[in-house]
Amino acid sequence: MGLVCASQSPTHFSEDFLGNVATKMLLGIDEMYWDGAVRKLKIDAKILQYVTPRRSLAVQIKTGTENRARFVGVDLSAAR
């Protein structure tokens, strides 16, 4: 079973919800939300700058073997 939730702002989701999500994908966040995303999602601002529409995204995947998963940039052009 899967659940997909989408929003233009990370503030739309509670901390409890975000803390229990195993995979987060950021396709792009408006710059006015970057400070809040850095705090709430614990994402590096450089990763947010890396995200470009239709070219790259940021992803965090939590597994049972890691204490803390970090966001990484993914180049979508390599998948074509």
The Cα radius of gyration reads 13 Å
Number of domain units? 1
Element order: H for helix, E for strand = HEHHEE
Total of DSSP H or I helical runs spanning 4+ residues: 3
Mean pLDDT across all residues, rounded?
89
Q: First CA to last CA: what distance?
A: 28 Å
- Numbering strands along the chain, what is their spatial order in the largest sheet? 1-2-3
Helix content: 10-25%
- Please tell me what the overall shape is: globular
Structure description:
The protein has 80 residues and is of the alpha+beta class. It has one domain. It has three helices and three strands; from the N terminus they run αβααββ. It has a three-stranded antiparallel beta sheet. It is globular. The N and C termini lie far apart (28 Å). The relative contact order is 0.19. The mean pLDDT is 89.
